[in-house]
Amino acid sequence: MLDLTELEQLTTFADTGTLSMAAEKLHISQPTITRTMQHLEETFGVSLFVRGKNKIMLNDTGLKAVEQARQLLSAADNALKTVKAFDKSLHTITISSCAPAPLWYVLPALSSAYPDMTIASSIKNVPAIYEDLDSEFCQLAILPHNIQYDHYVNIPFLKENLSVCVAASHALSDKSSVTFSDLNGFNFLLGSEIGFWDEMCRVRMPASRFLVQTNQFEFEELVRESSLPCFTTNLAKDSQNLLADRIKIPVTDPDANVTYYLACHSQLISYAEVLKRIDVNDIKE
Fold first, then answer.
1. How far apart are CA 144 and CA 150, in angstroms?
2. Where does CATH 3.40.190.290 sit in the chain?
3. What is the pLDDT of residues 235-270, one digit of tens each?
4. C-alpha dist (Å) from residue 278 to 89, 95, 99, 200, 220
5. What is the DSSP-derived secondary structure letter of residue 176?
6. Over 70: is that where the pLDDT of 284 sits?
């Protein structure tokens, strides 16, 4: 029976070229790896090396053995990863979301309903979410539109409406509503991890520039001290009153007013049923 540890020593010897270097890399003694090479020849039942004075080299059969050893080690590694991933999936609900706001409602609901499960979430662009659905990487997807997937359940979940926040001295401050066309050309503060909103702003306002802040504290300080406009939505919480001195102006373009949909495989309808029971009074329209 082939031993994976011995096969690893064989491939390491092939990579390093000498027994001493292989032993050093694997943190074992040279006599140990010498005995391993001898045992491998006994296991295969053929000669694998050309032996010279104080040196051995792989012969053609040995090179073939190394090739097969690499395949076996790779297969073993994949088997371990596959089994671990499967076991993790039994205890984890993975959610891929196009934006952060829906997660504020989904995560607490699922955590409460499934206290023994790990809830994992990530914010991704829409194409990546479709890939997650296709590969069954995620059990739940949150998208800014309905999808027509066979065997998938789609639930309209909540609405998010975009507004721009400007200083009283800004050129747009007297408007009761704006469009992306009105905003195009102005520069904006933008937070990170805002999902599909980031791409939407860049596509719809190609003449604008965006000062993106990955640090929340720095973003908040700039909102306080800068005159650059920023964005908010009906779902965003302003617990620090950052926007108290700014004027909120709704963006009226249809794609700035989004209905989020939950998508999950019909076999996972129990997750969808839990989310259907979320109290709509807890969701700001």
1. 18
2. 91-285
3. 988 877 889 889 999 999 999 999 999 888 776 666
4. 24, 17, 19, 28, 31
5. S
6. no
Taking only the tens place, the pLDDT of each residue in 106-142 is 898 888 888 888 899 999 999 999 999 888 888 889 9
Beta bridge partners of 257: 161
What type of residue sits at position 95?
Answer: I
CA separation for the pair 128, 108 (Å, rounded): 24
The answer for residues whose C-beta is within 8 angstroms of residue 165's C-beta and 6 or more apart is 229, 230, 231, 232, 243, 246, 247, 248, 249
Q: What is the pTM of this model?
A: 0.68
| CATH, domain 91-285, list 3.90.180.10, 3.40.50.970, 3.40.190.290, 3.40.30.10 | 3.40.190.290
Beta strands at 152-166 and 247-250: parallel, antiparallel or unpaired: antiparallel
Q: How far apart are CA 250 and CA 248, in angstroms?
A: 7
Question: Which SS3 state, helix, strand or coil, does residue 98 take?
Answer: coil
Where are the CATH 1.10.10.10 domain residues in the chain?
4-87
Cα(124)–Cα(142) distance, integer angstroms: 10
- Domain 4-87 is of which CATH architecture? Orthogonal Bundle (1.10)
